[in-house]
Amino acid sequence: MQHAKFKQLGAVMIISAAFAFSAQAQDKKPNVVVIGTGGTIAGAGASSVNTAAYQSAVVPVDKIIAAVPEISKIANVRGEQIFQIGSESFNDERLLKLGKRVSELLKQSDVDGIVITHGTDTIEETAYFLNLVLKSEKPVVVVGSMRPGTALGADGALNLYDAVLVAGSKEAAGKGTLVVMNDEIHSGRDVTKSNNSFKVETFRSPYGPLGYVVENKLMFYRLPARPHTTQTEFDIDQINSLPRVDIAYNYGNVSRAAYDAFVNAGAKAIIHDGTGNGSVAEQIVPVLQEVRSKGVQVIRATRTGSGVVIRNGEQPDDKYDWVVTDDQNAQKARILAELALTKTNDTKELQKIMWKY
């Protein structure tokens, strides 16, 4: 009888020890919050062969997480739905709301990293914005997919798994906001979308990715050189609105219509998305001079998608009191200009900021 009691006691101790070990293992895993905003990664198609024709932003974030059970082996994950939209519908108000929520979460001691599921159309803008305004070294990763989860060869599940792995890693800390897609880790500053609808390798950085995710391992090969997150003068907790900045795309036979419309709508700056080195057509030069005379900043960018716009190279920027981008494309220049204008409206200071970041 005594022997049976000892056996029972031993069994209870073994079970208790097993539970304690399981709880300890759970505690060792990083805590990652996955914020859902919609996009293709939350999309569904009518058929498994629909890779480009589908409805985006219909699957809630908890179901996206549940579809990748392997995630539970690498992190303690919880989901939070903040938006359910296609990313083409992101606006400044939503950008600010997202940034402030991410900032709140990063301050919590039980949060080690953040993943944001996002439509691919404007991932680069959201990532660049967060890269400039968040005041934490904890990893923040923006992730999406080019194919809906219902498609053959869907890329969202692995992209999400990799994003959680990166967000929960110590190696990713202090590297700014990252974009993880197609096994690659990109800086939010550099990355841009290069194919509109179906290529899973669409995201590119002009200087290459920071690294890769290979068989559950993070492999970094370079670091961001420009200031980000804790190194910038922009703080999401202190920004409640953004000044209006618009983009005027240039082409042969371009007219002044867009510039006039933007000025009349209250733009504080216009990104001149010019040909070549931010070139300005002869009929547009006086238009931009007029725009600047009304107190609206003129910032020259290039529609080519890469390369540095040289100050006083194509136009006498000093004479006209214009600003040039560094290597930012127009959509990223717009984000930086909005933030810069919360600090200053002095042209020389704006130019320094464009060159700095």
Automatic annotation (TrEMBL):
Residues 31-222 form the L-asparaginase N-terminal domain. One of its GO terms (molecular function) is asparaginase activity. Keywords: Hydrolase, Signal. The active site is at T40, T120. Substrate binds at S87, T120, D121. It comes from the Bacteria. The keyword Chloroplast does not apply. Residues 244-354 form the Asparaginase/glutaminase C-terminal domain. GO terms for biological process: asparagine metabolic process. The keyword Signal applies. Residues 1-25 form the signal peptide. Belongs to the asparaginase 1 family. This is Glutaminase-asparaginase. The gene is ansB_1.
